[in-house]
Structures are given as structure tokens and as C-alpha cells.
Amino acid sequence: MGKRELLLIAAFVVVGAIVYQFTAPAPAPGERSFGAGQVLDHIRRAMRGNRASAELTTRSSHPVDADVSELRLADLKSTNVTITGEDRSDIEVELQVRSNAYDEQEAQRTAQESVLKVDRAGTRMVFTVAYPQAGVQRGSVTMRVPKRLAVQIQGGGNDLRFNHIAGLQLGGARGKLAITDVKGLVSGAHRGGELSVVNAGAVKLTTNGTDAELERIGGETSMTMRGGELKCAELAGPIDLDTQGTEITIDRLEKTSGMVRITAVGGSLDVKGLRTEGRFDVRASAVDVIIDRAAPLAIYGEGGGSIEITPPSGGYQLDAVATDGEIELPSDLLEVTSSGSERRATGPIKGGGPTITIRSRRGSITVRERK
Predict the structure, then answer these.
(1) How many angstroms separate the CA atoms of 253 and 236, rounded?
(2) pLDDT for 222-237, tens place per residue?
(3) pTM (2 decimals)?
(4) Is the Cβ–Cβ distance between 299 and 307 less than 8 Å?
């Protein structure tokens, strides 16, 4: 914005202030009238910006009653959070605030006015960070809490870390999120950025534009994803994925029990070491599955995209049909028959066993030789 535009804006503001002086009602007792000096002050602030800064660190300790089971952090806005569970009976908090304001005096004041508030609601302790309206504040909260507590967080800054707690519920988290050693369920929503969950009881998350990594999940893993990337390893329970435009890689499934159910539109699906029952419904997605142990498996593909599998070393039954596509098999495995636009390969392999069902429309099917 040039000087001419700034002068025009200033002129409009001054004229508006003069008109207001003649038309505004008289101030109530205890109120300040709106004067030309205030107008000029606002103009100077707008032109100069928040050039001064101040930092302040405060520490506090809060006892936790035996009947409290949950810790909630609300209205965090631009606040980074680190919570670590320990063998303790209180909550130790450190609040670091950096405030940018018009001048040094205002920066110091607004930093001191940034406070942590604590409330008790039934079996829940609620912590909020209150920032003043003046200036721009960025905060960082570090908590050491009893590890028996579950944590619920609403909002937050660009860096969130949770370790050694009973459970975690996310309310619209963003940015970088690292979660480690959660005894129970990790649930909620995350948008944009990186998410990591290592060693949790179960996971049920909805993400948008998130690159997620999950490892060592003891119970069910349920993910609803739009965009981004998902990397999984050592998932012990059932798996349920509903994705759009997501690149999916699942590995090290030796301990997985229960159904592996995946619905994917766009993106890709790469599964290594499948040993349990599965159903994959994909559209316009490339699929690559390595099966370590025979179990019922159904793969349904539409809208193009290749389906490739490496079958188990033991016996199984193959039921593969490609419509408007090709089927490629190792030599002497089965005969591929044709009828119009349909290709079919059906029959027992190595004495038969659980059925591997593959249906592809406008895409290819490839069964690789296991080496």
C-alpha cells in the first residue's frame, strides 16, 4: 500500500471521527469519550504495527483429586502443547508467552495479562489460556500430569505432543501432532500437517490433508481420510479405512487379528504381509497386496487402476474376473478364459484353500509368482 492510499485512509478516518463527535450521544458515567487523539493513535498503530515484543514464563502446580479422571484444554488458539504423564498426584504447568505489541510497555503488559485459567467440572479439570485483545500472542504450555488421566484438547497451535496418558480426544487439531504411549483410545479430528501415533490402545480418527503414521496399535484402527498419506505398521486389531485421494501403505501385519476392511477412492493401496481376512473396495486406485498366509480375501476394483497380488505359499482358491481388462498369471498356474469383454481365471491352486476373489472393471489383474 502506497503513501497516497494511506493518506486517503487517514483522511476518511479523521472525517468519520469528526462526524461522530457531533452525532454521538454523551458518554455514560465512567466511560471515556471518543476523541481525535484516539483516532490519531489508532492511525499510528495501524501504520507502525506490532514492532515490540516481550516474553514471560510462569509456573504453577494444581492438586488433582482422586475422582478426577479427565483433563480438558479448551480455547487454545495459537498455543503449542506438550503433555507428559507421570506417577504423580498433581499437575505441574509451565506457560511461556511471547507477545508482540505496539511498544515495549504494551508488550510487557499483554504478556503479563496472558494467563492460564483452571476450573473443575465434575470429574474433569479444565484449563484455558486467556490472551488480551491488544497485540498478538503466541503461547506454549508444558504439563506434567498423572498418567491415569485421559486428555481432551480443543484447538491448539502448530506443535502438539502427548505422552504416557490414559486416552486422548482431539477437537480440530492442526499442524504437527506426535502421540506416544496412550493406554486407551486416540480419537477425534486432525486437519493439515503431520500426525504420528506410536503405541496406543486403539485409534479412531478423521483427517483432512494429513500425513499420518501409525505404529504398534493394540486394538482397532479406524481412519476416515481425505487426501494425505497413511503409513501403518504392527496393527494388532481389526482395520477399517475409508479414504479419498490417499496414498496408503500397510506393513508388518503378523499380529493383526480380525477383518481388514478398506474403501479407497483414488490414491493407492500397498499392503504387505496380509495374514487375515480382508475386503478391499477401490475405485481408480492402484492396488498391490502381498499375502503371507491364506485367508478369505475379496478385492473389488472399478474405474481403472491395476490390481496386483503376491499369493501365499500354501494352497488357495483363485476367482479372478476382469471386465474390459486383462489377467496375467504365472505360467502353468491356471488357464485364462475369455467371453466377450470378460477375462476369467478360476480354480484351486496347490490343492485349494481359502478363496481369493478379485473383480476388476476397466483395469488389469496380475498374480505374481511368489519367490
Answers:
(1) 7
(2) 999 999 999 999 999 9
(3) 0.82
(4) yes
Q: How far is CA 69 from CA 122, 170, 345, in A?
A: 9, 17, 57
Give residue-wise pLDDT tens across range 268-325.
999 999 999 999 999 999 999 999 999 999 999 998 889 999 999 999 999 999 999 9
DSSP 92-122: EEEEEEEEEESSHHHHHHHHHH-EEEEEEET
State how far the Cα of 306 lies from the Cα of 318, in Å rounded to an integer: 17
Domain ranges, ordered by start, for the chain = 3-48, 50-165
Backbone angle region of 252, left / alpha / beta, with phi > 0 → left and psi within -120 to 50 → alpha:
left
Looking at residue 66, the DSSP 8-state letter turns out to be: T
β-partners of residue 63 are 90
**Among all chains, which residue has been given the C-alpha cell 481389526?**
238
Helix axes 3-23, 36-48, angle to 10 degrees: 150
The separation between CA 365 and the C-alpha centre of its own chain, rounded to angstroms, equals 34
Query: If residue 37 lies in a helix (H) or strand (E), which one and from where to where?
Result: helix 36-48
What does DSSP say about strands 327-328 and 90-101: parallel, antiparallel, or unpaired?
unpaired
At position 295, the amino acid (one-letter code) is A
Place of cell 501409525: 214
Within 8 A by CB and 6+ apart from 331, the residues are none
Q: How many residues does the chain have?
A: 371
